[in-house]
């Protein structure tokens, strides 16, 4: 009975709730931030570039864009870098050497999941013997020729996936503790793409100022519905410092607009506030 309780407790410690989905994590997985958003007008992907390996930190891309017969999709990953690089390489080889294109995004998501399962068959046992968790999660988004609209998927280490639709609206893999409240309060499927992009950055900003494990530069991808072309930009701290400062000021100023009647029994307020 005690042993069973310890197993349950360990499972709780080694998982985090990401949106509505409990995802196991290890420390090296938690030290990242990847956000995928879907709204009526398109898709947004934001990924930090900080990589943590033991006591060392360096920068590397966590998002890649892949062209398939004049249609583009993006892949963001969080987890072991070696697993990510191998799975993406296998996926690129697959799409470069297959004559038939993917007509639907779910086919592309399934194909990447298959590559992830192949890497698991090859490397999971040896990695776990060395104390590493085979824990790669991915967010895949885009639009293929027969898709009536853009699609966003969360892919699990086992290769299976779920679609992030207008019910979920967004998905964060990695450190989701600080960036979710703003999105939960304000993001809807009808949010304009430009406003969703603003919220996405502010979600990253809240995470970046709250933890040392997530940092600039960030890679941002925007896909506009029906364009079949993803656009990418890299932003550095100096590019976004004014936006971050303006947001901090707006938050401080908003305190002045909050009514204080509920505080009267707790604080000595100025006479004009009584």
Entry keywords:
7 helices; Glutamine Phosphoribosylpyrophosphate, subunit 1, domain 1; 274 residues; disordered N terminus; five-stranded antiparallel sheet; alpha+beta
Commentary on this structure:
The protein has a single domain (26-238), classed as Glutamine Phosphoribosylpyrophosphate, subunit 1, domain 1, CATH 3.60.20. The protein has 7 helices and 14 strands. It has helices at residues 2-13, 27-30, 81-97, 105-129, 180-186, 193-208, 237-254, and strands at residues 15-18, 21-24, 33-39, 42-48, 50-53, 56-59, 63-68, 71-78, 137-142, 151-155, 161-163, 170-174, 218-224, 230-235. The strands form 4 sheets. Strands 12-3-4-13-14 form a 5-stranded antiparallel β-sheet. Strands 7-8-9-10-11 form a 5-stranded antiparallel β-sheet, covered by helices on one side. Residues 1-30 have low confidence and may be disordered.
Number of helices: 7
Give the strand order of the largest sheet, numbering strands 1, 2, ... along the chain: 12-3-4-13-14
The CATH topology annotation reads as: Glutamine Phosphoribosylpyrophosphate, subunit 1, domain 1
- The H-and-E topology, N to C, reads as HEEHEEEEEEHHEEEEHHEEH
Structural class: alpha+beta
Ends: how far apart? Answer: 58 Å
Please tell me how large the radius of gyration is.
21 Å
Short description:
The chain is 36% helix and 28% strand. With 274 residues, it is α+β, with helices and mostly antiparallel strands. The longest helix has 25 residues, at 105-129.
